[in-house]
Amino acid sequence: MAEQLSFILADGIYQTPENQKVTKDVLQAKLVAPINPRNRKDKPTTAWGIEKINRYGTPICISGHKMELRGSDREKGQYIYTCPVFHPNAKQEGLTCPLANHAECCNGAAQGRVFRMDFDQTPQVDVELPQHGRTFEVLYSARTIIERIFGILKDGYSLRRVHKRGKQAVEAHVDRCMISMHIMANMAYHQTGKANCGWTRNRLQRAN
């Protein structure tokens, strides 16, 4: 099984150096899990234009905005953050920056502040796959698909309530739920030509 795995998606509670090592050594895969701040607190910084580093390892500017991670400098061991108001590739709709703060933070630079932060300042962030980056977001978004599937199984196929006794009867009930789900997924695929999670009992009724 390990040869088929590239990434293991998990909850933030599993994001520890020990679990990262086990996942890599045993499964030859990368553990993908969000930041678990645990008992960490926001910490102040003397960096120009930056108010603090929050407990999730994100720099917050003096206007109260989260800086946007744009990449890493491996040679220098630094993350590179940019302005979410002025940088053309990081702009977030609705965010503004007072003129005085813009001048104080980056002397009114057209693309706003660029902030470099050493890796060791935020040990809660995964250096290999920073949780604030786009690559992590894309990979971890697959977890919500898995959760929706379990939600459909529980609420749409009676997996939440098992009115059975004995191990065999319970396993048979789960098997029927799983088989029904796969039948629905197969029917949805043949109806739409797409593999997605848009299969429900209502769609099955319409198909019949």
UniProtKB/TrEMBL annotation:
Pfam families attached to this UniProt entry: DDE_Tnp_1
A biological-process GO annotation: DNA transposition
Domain of life: Bacteria
GO MF annotations in UniProt: DNA binding; transposase activity
Domain Transposase IS4-like: 131-178
Name of protein: Transposase
Species this chain originates from: Heyndrickxia coagulans
